Amino acid sequence: MKIVIIGGGASGMAAALAASENPNTEVLLLERQARLGRKLLSTGNGRCNLSNLHAAQGGYHGGQSGFVQPALDAFGPERTLEWFRGLGLFTVAEPSGRVYPYSDQANSVLDVLRFALDRPNIRVLTGVEATALEKRDDFFLVHTPSASYSCQRLIVACGGAAGEKLGGSRSGYRLLASLGHEISPVFPSLVQLRSGWSGLAALKGVRANCAAAILRDGKTVASGSGELQFTQYGLSGPVIFDLSRDACQGPGAWTCRLDFLPHISREALVDALVARKSTNLPCDELLTGILHNRLGRVLVKSAGLSGTAPIAGLDSRALAQVVRQVKALRVDLTGKLGMDAAQVTAGGALTSEFSPETMESRRIPGLFACGEVLDVDGDCGGYNLQWAWSSGILAGTWAGRSGK
Ligand SMILES: Cc1cc2nc3c(=O)[nH]c(=O)nc-3n(C[C@H](O)[C@H](O)[C@H](O)COP(=O)(O)OP(=O)(O)OC[C@H]3O[C@@H](n4cnc5c(N)ncnc54)[C@H](O)[C@@H]3O)c2cc1C
């Protein structure tokens, strides 16, 4: 039986390996870029955060968040790591549950996949883009600029639009839509937020742990905690990535509220600041030893204090103002960066039109989809690649079944 897989990224490679387990299948893997798995090399800042031990339904979003569970039950993090071990990859898990290759190099993940794809019943064609699909009676035709390929089973593993410079594209949505599948609006997720806050220029590159909340017209729409990073144009870091899905979607006044000392009460912070009044230090040092020095100085300034004024002269109103900046800083948000900067695409092919047990289309038997092209996006921390492996293995396994 002939199977064509469109897209040689994480989910497409996993699908090809799973489908080829049936020796009666002939698998053709088409990749439009010059090499397989280009995006994979840039994941996890070059370290590839390939899974998360805690991956479960709660870490995923989309039209039907429960859609991911059968795939995670069938092929969750534990089985994925065993599978990779079988391919020759050693991995290590951080206390947070994030899993990386032991080598700390993303290319180790790609290399073991590439080596494994060297099987007699898998053919890989790179630099070949599927441009159109046709469904004939009991087979599909996959058209490319140079040739057309027929197959009984077709797997669309084209990924999403995120990471445009690494190969992200809308091609998979177009191909699935051409066969009658509905695509929900796509938008960037796990992406930095833009702000015009005046403190940013002095804080570029500073990292801080915090509790963060996204507010629309003063109402909280999402909250979380973790590491934040200031950039020259706004806010970044894991906590911002996770909140970015819900931020700046639609009109309204968007702000981010930041608590840089979530585990310390306002009263305890006031006590610590009052203790500083017995020193000869200037206000610039009011938060020294408590927060990153640069952040402390910017917060003092945004509280309306002069950095050179003596701490000893501060009254309780001034101290309360500083505490407000530390525990509830409001940073205006002007939008988010685009698909080129995003790590994942929210939205995509409606999951209600696919079986969560097999990834097969409910509209067109023999057609499968897996990975980011579906309306599934995960939290930061290995959830998206875990989805690519789980859904890719499922699609490949079921597409390869009953092959003669
Ligand atoms: C910078 C960055 C860092 C990331 N870091 C992490 C991380 O550390 N952990 C994590 O879990 N997730 C991470 N992600 C997200 C993760 O990489 C993706 O969710 C995952 O790769 C999706 O897998 P996929 O197979 O669906 O798509 P992709 O891996 O994008 O693969 C799709 C492939 O299909 C090809 N293609 C598309 N259309 C066609 C066509 N018409 N014909 C032929 N080929 C086609 C593309 O060129 C591409 O190679 C990161 C993403 C980015 C952009």
Outline of this structure?
By secondary structure, the chain is α+β, with helices and mostly antiparallel strands.
Task: Explain how this protein is built.
This protein is an alpha+beta fold. Helices cover 28% and strands 23% of the residues. The protein has twelve helices and 22 strands. The chain has a seven-stranded antiparallel beta sheet with strand order 18-17-14-15-16-13-19. Strands 7-2-1-11-21 form a five-stranded parallel beta sheet, with helices on both faces. α1 packs parallel to α12 and α9 packs across α11 (316-328). The protein starts with a strand and ends with a helix. The mean pLDDT is 97.
Q: How is the secondary structure organized here?
A:
Layout: E1 2-6, H1 10-19, E2 26-31, H2 38-42, E3 51-52, E4 60-61, H3 69-74, H4 77-87, E5 91-93, E6 98-101, H5 106-116, E7 122-126, E8 132-135, E9 140-143, E10 148-151, E11 153-156, H6 171-178, E12 187-189, E13 193-194, H7 200-203, E14 207-216, E15 219-230, E16 234-236, H8 238-244, E17 254-259, H9 266-275, H10 293-302, H11 316-328, E18 329-333, E19 335-336, E20 344-346, E21 367-369, E22 377-378, H12 383-400
Parallel strand pairs: 1-2, 1-11, 2-7, 11-21
Antiparallel strand pairs: 3-6, 4-22, 5-6, 8-9, 9-10, 12-20, 13-16, 13-19, 14-15, 14-17, 15-16, 17-18
Helix pairs in contact: 1-12, 9-11
The structure holds flavin-adenine dinucleotide.
Flavin-adenine dinucleotide (FAD) is lined by residues 6-12, 30-33, 38-39, 42-44, 48-49, 129-130, 157-159, 162-163, 166-167, 169, 171-172, 343-344, 371-373, 382-385, 388.
